[in-house]
Structure formats: structure tokens, C-alpha cells
Amino acid sequence: MKAKKVFLAALSLFLLLSVALFGCSSSNSSNDSGNKSSDDQVTIDIFQFKVEFKDQFEKVAKQYEKEHPGVKINITTVGGGEDYGAALKSKFASGDEPAIFNVGGPQDVEDWLDKLADLSDTKAASLALEGTLDGVKKGDQILGLPYNQEGYGLIYNKEIFKKAGIDPKNIKSFSDLENAVKKLDKEKKSLGIDAVFAFPAKETWVTGLHLSNVFLAPEFDSNVVNAFNAKTVEFKYGDAMKKFIDLQNKYSVQPTVSLDYSQQVEELFSTGRVAIIQQGNWVYNSIADIDPELAEKNIGILPIPIEGYKEDVIPVGVPMYWAVNKNKDEKVVKESKKFLDWLYTSDEGKEIILNEFKFIPAYDGYDSSEISDPLSKEIYDYAQQGKTIGWVFMGYPTGWGMEKLGVNIQKYVSGKMKWDELIANSKKEWEEARNK
Amino acid sequence: MRKQPLWYWLFLAPVLIALTVVVIIPFIFGLYYSFTNWNGIQSTEFVGFKHYINVFQDKEFLHSLWFTTKFSIASVLFINLFGLTLALIVTQKIKTYKILRTIFFMPNLIGGLILGFIWQFIFIKVFANVGNYLHIESLKGWLSTPETGFWGLVILMSWQMAGYIMVIYIAYLESIPQELLEAAEIDGANRFQRFRHITFPLVAPAFTVSLFLTLSNSFKLYDQNLSLTGGGPYNSTQMIAMEIFKTAFSENQMAYAQSKAVIFFVIVAVISLTQVYFNKKREVEM
């Protein structure tokens, strides 16, 4: 009997220890290998958000490893704006800090300030296009490097326009646009479209961030930092904004509150069931997957007219920045900067940026004729002519654009809120968020 | 409780340690953070009960609390009604009862997110097409108003959970002694009387389990909510779990969200415990 008890105790102790030891042993071994390799090899852990180019990016990292023996690059990709922020936080909290990660704008820079290395000594920083670094400057320090540029506007189907006898070149103002839309709407049946627009009010980033940006950027001089520092918001071009929302909502496939991105781009636009959508150059690949011919030849982009301000500008901005973690080993920080420099300023890197990633470059010294997709090309042309306004929505109070304004716009289009209430409430929410 | 030998605790240790590490310690951390200005990266200040006071003036939070309550009442009612009905059907002498049980249980094997997307398709596409064809206006535009969003969620949830609850009822129904039913039948009790006075009291313990499961499940619902309506339109179908998630990760107010989560925890705990307490009492009486 006693022997049995001793045996049981011994067995349970063994089980317990084995659990504990097993847990430790795996982490020990990984630590060991980490230490060993750091003597002769530098490991750069990259934690990035852009799912669309994950495969290409991993290929590039392999290529870089081959050319630079002694450098190892680990890439982790977590996609989709808000999930990335949460994942990054837990990544840092776990103690396994990445060397290179992404920041979105002034608010992120503020939040992560303790971690961000100064990148002003990189070649890429000196070549970044004017205005693209505004959101990540802190004094003399440059704390991020732009990924690329993106732009959005009204993407239209050239063939439908042609059939209806509308020349997109003649659309130069809001009233031109309104007339064109009315004409399209009248000939809906013969053109074979369900409606003129697909207005995805369900996607609060389309309405609360992108749409609102066009009408709020002028009052912040198109500078994201001004928006970030602003204690209040005026809605100076609120009337123009209302008109534009009304236009899209009225002539859209209904009901708009439950219309989402994939319905808008894939189901309705790519199949030619609507003529115009408010989207950006990132939809090119989705359209190309469904109808390569349409994507290649028959889509173009129109500016979103701001009545009373400028009616021929495209909002162009930087969606995300690369940041380097300064708490890492000096060697790792140095190699990380070197990698980013290589990616954006070497000839090889440039080639990849244009042809593999299909980015609109945010840096000087690129051959624009090599930009491969028509939307990006058109946007780049607008940028060359200076017909752009900036992206200020990264400077909105956190969550304000999507959770407050975007939601209010949903209420507005379902008739639960008047426009005056929308303006008043959105202003109030901005101020409250700023005074917290 | 008598004193347990050493090996008892040693055998229990792995579970206790796991529970402490993944549930108890994070819970205590969370409680602590809810009193600070933690932003997910660092906390610099101790703010006391500030967040807790703010929570009760937070319209959005109160709205989602009310919505969740309404939803829970409706779905608990429907799930148990359907679950019991299904259980009664498949315990009758039908030839296909085995297949039927499998079919009824199946929705429960599909993940909540996927279910949400499937039903989104049904509500938006199928309903609209049927509505167009038969000219029924009320079938169009589902999920684009708060009411249809609410009923959409209830339908989805009942469809998913009913099969699971059915299994619990079946277990109790099959343990009812046949002699009692036969005796009652001989005494002249009709179908309904037999159900009302014999079956129903004897499956009462199943209600405890089922009500507890459905209530806490509906209260904590997140993935179905996320994929079916995403809280829309205009956040009117946003449940508490989602509201808390958005406060934390979209508005980046980690500590504030944490205090909401603590309140949420208290509410769920109180409801569940009271409910179990009352149901237990009833069982004993019988």
C-alpha cells in the first residue's frame, strides 16, 4: 500500500516536472540558437501589415538574404488595418519585439515613440517625395519611411461612358458630374446597368475616412499634422460633402447601408453592373482577377470634385510607414536600415517596387513609364501635375472617422439623422476625443 | 472537505497551473489595468474609478447592453423552444430518427464566422430574390435596418444552437421511465397531459443546463455578430463583446475597454449564477 502511494506521488511529480521542463526546454533551445547566430549572423524580424504583397515580399527577402550572407530575414504578415495594431501590441507585450514594423501616422508615432529609431540618416529618407514624411517627423527626426503612395477617386467604366456618349474629359466640376450621372441613370436599361454607383456605406472606411478626407483636407491645408493637432473640426466644405454623399447614395444600388466592399468592387463593378465606384488604385488586382480586359483597358479614374474649392484633384497619400525598433541590437538596427535602403533606392529594389509590388513609388528617381497598371499610372500623372490633395484621415482622433463619422453617415443615409445633426454630433465627438 | 493526499494535488497541478496562467493571472492584470490609463503599450497613471463612472454615461455601451439583453431573451426563448421541439420529434418512433438527429446537430459543427457569412448571403441575396419574384416587400433589404438585423441574428443563433440543445433534451427524454408513461396512458391521460405532467417535470434538470448554456452563449456572442451584421447598420446591432473590442482596438482606449469588460463579466456572472440557483432550487423541490 505504501509502495503504491510512493509510486503515485513519484509519477505525478514526474508528470508535473515534465510539463514544466518541456515548456522551458523549447524556449531555452530557441534562445540558444538566437544567441549563437547573433555572433556571425544578424536576424531581422519584420512584422508588416500588407497582405496583398506578402508572397512577393517574401521572395524579395530571400533574394536579399542570398546577396547579403549573414543577414536573415523573418517576415510575419498580419493583415487588415485595425487587426494589425492589436497584433503588434501583443507582439511587443510578449517580449518578442520585431526589428521592423509599421506605423500609420502621427497617432501611431506618438504611441510608439519609445521604440522608434531615427531614420534621417538613411538614403531613402533623403529621397522621399515632398510631403510624404510629414506624418512621421518629430523635430529633426524622421521616424518612418513611406511604403508607397496610393490614391483614390471615382473609378469609372470607360465602355459604359462611351455607350452613353459621355466624355470623361468633360467632367470638370460637380455639376458636370451630376449631369453625367443623371444621364447614365436615365439610360440605365439600355446600358445594362443596375445603377450608376455602388455606394458602400457599410464600409465606414470608405465613407468616414476616404470620402470625408476629400472635404476635410482643405481646412487642414492637406497636412496630416495639422489635422492631428486640431482641437476642433469645422466642416468648412460640409455642404459640398452632403451633395456628394446624396449623389452617390441616390443613384446607387440599394440598400446602401448593407452594401460592402466586395459587393461594390467585385460583384457590381467588375461585372459591369454599375458604372462608377469611389475606390482607389488598390482595387486593380481584384478587378483584374475577374475581368482582366476591363482592368487593362476600360477603367479610368476621375477626381472627387470639392465644390467651392478645387474640383480636379485626386487625394494621394501614404497608407503606412516602415519603422525600425531602436531597442534592438545596434547591429540589427543598422542592418534593418540597410535593408530598407536597398529596397527603395537600389536599382534592383526599384525594379521590384514597380514590377513585383506594383507600387506607386513615394521616392524620387523612379521611371514612371514603368508603372504597370492604368489606375496607378493615372494617379501618378495627377501627382506629377500637382493636382493632388493629401490624406489627413490618419490625423483624425483615433476611431473618429470610422466609428463616429462613418456611423453617422450610415444613420444619415438611412434617414435616422439629419445632416445638421450629423455635422453637430461629429464636431462634438472630435472635440471630446481631443480633450480626453 | 477531507484532507487530500499529496499526490491528489500533484495530479491536479498541471490543470491548476494552466488555469492560473491563462485565466486567473490575466484576469487580475485586467482588473488592475482598468484602474489605470493603460493604452496597450504602457500605463503611466492610476486613475481610480474614473473609467467605471464614464461607462455608465456611455450611450453606445448602454445601447449595446440593452440590445444584447433583448437579443438574449429572444434567442434563449427560441433556442429552447426549437431544441425541445426537435428533441420531441426525434424521440418519437420515426424510422429516420438517427439521420434527423445528425442533420439537426450539424449547424453546430460549422464555425460561427462562416455561419455568419452564409446567412448574410441568405438574408441579402436569397431573401431579396425571393422577395423580387413574389413581390413581397418585407423580404427585401434585410440586415439594412436595425429590426431585420436583430431578427437575422436571432434566426442565425437559433438555427445554430437548437441542435446542440436538442442533444441535451434527448438525453433527459430518453431517461424517462417508460412505465410511468404507460401507466398514465392506461389511466386515460392524453398525449398533452402526459407531456405536461410527466415528461415536462422530468426534463426540468435539462432546462437548467440548457438555459445556462444558451443565456451565457447569447450574452457573449461575438463572431456571428461580426460576420453577419458587423454591428451595422450604424452600430445598432452591436453587442457588448463587439463594443468592447471596438473601444479597445479601434478607438485605442485599452483601459476604458478593460473596465467595460469587467462590468460585462460581473453582469454575465450574476445572471448565470442567479439563474442556476433558481433552477437548482426547483429541481430539488420535485
TrEMBL record, chain A:
It comes from the Bacteria. SUPFAM superfamilies: Periplasmic binding protein-like II (SSF53850). The keyword Lyase does not apply. Pfam families: SBP_bac_1 (PF01547). Residues 1-23 form the signal peptide. Keywords: Signal. This is Raffinose/stachyose/melibiose transport system substrate-binding protein.
From TrEMBL, chain B:
It is a multi-pass membrane protein. It is found in: Cell membrane. Its main location: membrane. The chain crosses the membrane at residues 7-33, 71-91, 103-128, 148-172, 198-219, 261-278. Residues 65-275 form the ABC transmembrane type-1 domain. GO terms for biological process: transmembrane transport. This is Raffinose/stachyose/melibiose transport system permease protein. It comes from Parageobacillus thermantarcticus.
